[in-house]
Amino acid sequence: MNLKSLEYFVEVARDLNMTTAAQRLYISQQALSSQIQKLEEYYGVTLFERRPKLQLTYAGKRLLEGAETVLRDSIDLTNSLSEISKNRSGILRLGIPTYRAAESLPLILPAYTKKWPNVTITLEDTNTTEMLEKLLAGALDACVVSPSPSEVQGLGDRLEFVRLLDDRTYVICSDEMLSRYFGSRSEAVRKRSRQGIDLQEFRDVPFLLHKPPMRLRQVEDECFNNAGFRPNVFLEAGNTELMLALYPCHVGCFFCREARIHSIARIFGDHNAFPVNYDEGPHRQIVYFVRRKTAQPRAHVLDFERLMQKAWKEIALH
Predict the structure, then answer these.
(1) Which CATH number, 2.30.40.10, 1.20.1260.10, 3.40.190.10, 2.40.110.10, labels domain 167-285?
(2) pLDDT in tens, 52-73
(3) E strands, 211-276, in order
(4) Which end of the chain has fewer CB within 10 Å, C or N?
């Protein structure tokens, strides 16, 4: 038994699909099945039920718990010994939304890889709560998230929250949508909304909302509750990318973060980005770089944190 076999097992257990796991690992399905079989022979147990569909046995569930711990400890040991040997190798497991990675990593990686050429970076895009849970469990080294004030306060003794930026919330609406729902008043509504959208004016306009429990959906619900009405929901989506793809269809307005405005402007010329006001001021969410509090933080994580702060300062100036 070796770590590679455990890694293969964890990948199969992740989504219980041998074909998908083999593709992700860049090996044949036959080779992956052989590795799992050898692991079962080594421990003398059946790890997966093959019929009617692939699922973990009790022994498989127990091994999964232990395997994840072993693999995390192996990564931590690799990073620790790398710093001792000064060869600047290791692994950085980062949780970050894809759109934030697209904005910031081009500014970070040239300098980072120059100093840390042998560090492998893995990215994970999931919701804030899951990223924080994985960070606490040691499955991530750091994450870029927008936690609630209660999460920052409740986890502050175990996690280091480094403020990156205050991200304003916007409603994106096309000229076509304004003309369709406001007619001759569309230009006046556009001018007023550029200073801060009055959602009451848009109560009859259809919206594309994010699915609960996404953090942006919580913001959307707060804003509509504050405005005092139930929105006209055309569609609920699990990500903003689908909303961007539907933008040319003019089927609804949608909420997005300020960090997306630059890319939206590059893609769509007729967009309108209206800031959302909340309780007499602009609605903002604080974005943090978060890592575990330890006596000796890993140098390659601290360097990434420093470059991330610098990158978002540059982005905020544009």
Answers:
(1) 3.40.190.10
(2) 889 999 888 988 888 887 777 7
(3) 232-237, 253-257, 271-275
(4) C
Whether a cis peptide bond, with omega within 30° of 0, leads into 213 is: yes
- Give the separation between CA 8 and CA 32, rounded to whole angstroms: 7
Q: pLDDT tens, 199-242?
A: 999 999 999 999 988 888 988 999 999 899 999 999 999 889 89
CA dihedral 173, 174, 179, 182 (to 10 degrees): 0
Angle at which helix 299-317 crosses helix 98-115, to 10 degrees, equals 120
* Cβ contact 177:270 at 8 Å: no
pLDDT tens digit sequence for 127-151:
888 999 999 988 899 999 999 889 9
Q: Is 173 in contact with 198 (CB distance < 8 Å)?
A: no
Q: Does domain 72-141+294-317 have CATH number 3.40.190.10?
A: yes
- Cβ atoms of 111 and 306 within 8 Å: the answer is no
| Residue 264 predicted with pLDDT over 90 | no
Q: What residue spans define the domains of the chain?
A: 3-65, 72-141+294-317, 167-285
The pLDDT value given to residue 190: 94
Question: What CATH number has the domain spanning 3-65?
Answer: 1.10.10.10
What six digits make up the tokens of 167?
A: 């991200």
Backbone phi, psi, residue 283, to 5°: -80, 125
Cα 273 versus chain centre, distance: 23
Distance of CA 190 to the CA centre of its chain: 32
Q: Render 30-55 in DSSP notation, one character per residue.
A: HHHHHHHHHHHHHHTS--EE-SSS-E
* Cis amide leading into 52 (omega within 30): yes
- Is the alpha carbon torsion for 41, 47, 49, 53 positive or negative? negative
Confidence band, pLDDT 50/70/90 cuts, at residue 84: very low
Domains 72-141+294-317 and 167-285 share a fold: yes
